[in-house]
């Protein structure tokens, strides 16, 4: 083994991240202890789990996290007997940030109210670096369980770190903080115990604080989910939620129950009260923790489907062996039954809370886009999830459900109409709505990314088909109403000529009665994706096979009437046809095929009109 000290530069974003954590979160310094203790407890959990299939990793004595303040040396040590880290892991976990989150972290930090800033540490996975809020220098000595080598990672948080060989009698990790002069309060045992009781009281691994040469217990270590609901206070629920979810808000919903009978388990789940800054968008797996007889097994058991991945918490069962492996978890019917039961319980809670529209709106604005994924991918629960969906509408303010829409349908209306796009405000102004609005027909406005997909799977709700207003030829003739726009021009010859001129751009040119103020609009063919899906496919470079759009023209519009009258003699119709098609694209939030050519055509048209 070489005795040479190795010096390394931090990964590209760590330096900036350290500056953000140290300065922007300065007033919340105590949070460093919660983060380091949580990491230590996780390391012990991981060692326990790996020991189930590798007995050589079994702990020789009861695991605990020890906190040792030393006023004379002005150091604070957090020691654990967990899985430990090898040299490469120290460099990987402490010298780089795996996901590029610093810019998002900085933006969220600038926008978050002061009371919410502590949550950014846990939600962005940068908890270890909070140590530099209170320490001038941090040393991490670690020995990976199952190996004999130990290494020390050390840094002053100024752009680089060192790695050097070390020794440690047992596997695990020691983190030594060399405290700043103004952080000596964190060397007082009573202050440390107060912080642990506040932030980590429900960590089930014992945590001790050294006082006068003795290790004193600092946490209860109670499996809160095993207590009767009547014995748990709202404050205890909130503290446990913050621990298990790495969050600092109040939960929107708390689900605590015990299933008994043929299948027995305890569960304590939370629906967050605020949207995390990253997790539910980037991570598609549920992280609800699975315990067997109180012992943590894994947070990768998929206890809830991906479309409920925002739910946090613990499920603890007696019906699995302690030595269950991840491979066994995928096959055991017990876990499948637990998954079904837990999923149904969460859906039941959402149905119950949805009766209060104002309260449910808070949940929907945080997690509605994720819940919609259930309609797309989960045939078993599709109808249940559909009833929980909420939408913006062309007819009413706020959020509305599909059931509310059905109650407001016009006489003669045969379908639930939707319009998908990138922005709700832009959709509300879309020409696609003109004929519907004129007849008082409501259209649901969909602006989440998943909205381009799920209607294809749901197809209908309560017997009424769900139809995109951009797809196929929408017949509104059976619905009374609409303004008197005068006689329609005879556009047969014009349609044929436009079809010829735009044959490379559109599949069909046809007249429509769903326009009022606009001359033209695009539609999708009756089979294949709607316009929003086509746009998404083009952006992804996968537009092949989507088919060409349909150009619909308004035979009552003055421009179309004039073109119909002069079609036989108009020498500029080719230019006009291109302009009409590009106008239709612009109205739908797309760009002209050739923006420069479009600009020239508009300028020429304006000049001709002026002359």
Q: Largest sheet at a glance?
A: 9 strands, mixed
Cross-sheet strand order for the largest sheet = 1-6-5-4-7-3-2-8-9
Structural class: alpha+beta
| Shape designation | elongated
Stretches where pLDDT is under 50 for at least 5 consecutive residues are 98-102, 118-125
Strand content: 15-25%
InterPro entries: HATPase_C_sf, HATPase_dom, HSP90_C, Hsp90_fam, Hsp90_N, Ribosomal_Su5_D2-typ_SF
Keywords: ATP-binding, Chaperone, Cytoplasm, Nucleotide-binding, Stress response
Region (A): 1-326
Organism: Paracraurococcus lichenis
Summarize the structure.
The chain is built from 22 helices and 22 strands. InterPro entries: HATPase_C_sf, HATPase_dom, HSP90_C, Hsp90_fam, Hsp90_N, Ribosomal_Su5_D2-typ_SF. It is found in: Cytoplasm.
Any descriptors?
single chain; 611 residues; alpha+beta; Heat Shock Protein 90; Ribosomal Protein S5, domain 2; Four Helix Bundle (Hemerythrin (Met), subunit A); 3 domains; 9-stranded mixed beta sheet; 22 helices
